[in-house]
Design a protein that fits this description.
This protein has two domains: 2-63, Alpha-Beta Plaits (2-Layer Sandwich), CATH 3.30.70; 83-332, Aldolase class I (TIM Barrel, Alpha-Beta Barrel). It contains eleven helices and 14 strands. The chain is α/β, with parallel strands linked by helices. The protein has an eight-stranded parallel barrel, surrounded by six helices. A four-stranded antiparallel beta sheet has the order 2-3-1-4. A two-stranded antiparallel sheet has the order 5-6. Helices cover 34% and strands 18% of the residues. The structure holds phosphoenolpyruvate and manganese (II) ion (MN).
């Protein structure tokens, strides 16, 4: 349920409304816009006397929210969410580019990639230290050692870092070394893990599950937010369809649907969506044209020898070209690209 307050309601009026709701054991989430203030209410609504609420001198309208996700819902929070990750901002005025290898493979290799992506204009460095591989015999990641290399690369280049976490143990380690946590597609509905990152002190990139509907995805975000972490970005990374010519099917319409239903920033990952490096640049341009708040792109200094996802990893030259060609699209989207 949301309460739209009357225009010009002062702090004392907002506190009055909040106190009346909270004394019945429900939670409130106040969103102050430039024009009106909205109070989102979560909890057992049967405890509230709706007629009395409507009679409040501070409340203009009482609206019910039919969707099961509330905190992630745009009705609860009409302004787009933005938040800082180290020195960079994820959110409406900025175009975030997270680039780097699929997996952290060595300190020197990561530093080489970090320097190159920074030079080309990336705002964040990505790199997996815990790799959820299809086969248990494939490279599984360097774990804490990889996290340490991410920290070194961040200290040297100034780039903010992001790393996937696959367990509560990984969350505990990652918060010591990186600036943002990633929940991968395979764990989008791992509710215990979502609750863990909901309690973590870092922002979270929540990737879309391979077969998840947008509603399920937003409910996964709700799991994180309901634990107290409001800093979530969603990442469209392709879904499974009957089509097999690309690794997944990039659902660019999801960017538009999400912008209608949620205030959370949206990142697009054309690398995992297609599995084909030549498709990464055109789909990056298309994602920005569709209103995405950022991109996640895999880049490697020697893709042929990459320990994972080589075929979709861009060379440094291809990444530089992508960034150059993106510039007019970023400008047209009314954003800037700030480190
Ligand atoms: C990744 O970004 O490293 C990754 C494994 O992606 P996804 O979870 O989207 O498959
Ligand atoms: Mn990968």
């Amino acid at each position: 349920m949301i309460l739209v307050l009357k225009r010009g309601t002062k702090e004392s009026g907002i506190s009055n409304v909040v106190a009346n709701i909270e004394k019945e054991g429900l939670q409130t989430h106040v969103s102050k816009g430039t024009e009106v203030t909205i109070v989102g209410v979560v909890g057992d609504k049967s405890r509230l006397d709706i007629d009395r609420l409507k009679a409040s001198p501070y409340i203009d309208r009482v609206l019910s929210v039919t969707e099961s996700y509330k905190l992630a819902n745009k009705k609860f929070h009409p302004e787009p969410t933005s938040f800082a990750v180290k020195g960079t901002q994820i959110g409406p005025d900025n175009l975030t580019v997270m680039a780097g290898p699929c997996a952290v493979e060595s300190e020197e290799g990561l530093l080489t990639i970090a320097r190159a992506v920074k030079e080309a204009g990336a705002t964040m460095l990505r790199g997996g230290a815990y790799k959820p591989r299809t086969s248990p015999y494939s490279f599984q990641g360097l774990e804490e050692e990889g996290l340490k290399y991410l920290k070194t690369a961040s200290e040297e280049t100034g780039l903010a870092t992001i790393c996937e976490v696959t367990s509560a143990h990984a969350v505990e380690a990652a918060v010591k070394y990186v600036d943002m946590l990633q929940i991968g597609a395979r764990n989008m509905q791992n509710f215990e893990l979502l609750k863990e990152v909901g309690k973590a002190p870092l922002p979270v990139l929540l990737k879309r599950g391979m077969a998840a509907t947008i509603d399920e995805w937003l409910n996964a975000a709700e799991y994180i937010m309901s634990e107290g972490n409001p800093h979530i970005a969603l990442c469209e990374r392709g879904i499974r369809t009957f089509e097999t010519s690309t690794r997944n099917t990039l659902d660019l319409a999801a960017v538009l649907v999400l912008k209608e239903h949620t205030h959370l920033p949206v990142i697009v990952d054309p690398s995992h969506a297609t599995g084909v490096r030549d498709f990464v640049k055109p789909l990056s341009l298309a994602a920005v044209a569709c209103g995405a708040d950022g991109l996640m792109i895999e880049v490697h200094n020697n893709p042929e020898c990459a320990l994972s996802d080589g075929p979709q990893s861009l060379t440094f030259e291809q990444f530089e070209e992508t960034m150059r060609d993106l510039a007019p699209y970023i400008a047209l989207s009314g954003r800037e690209q700030k480190a």
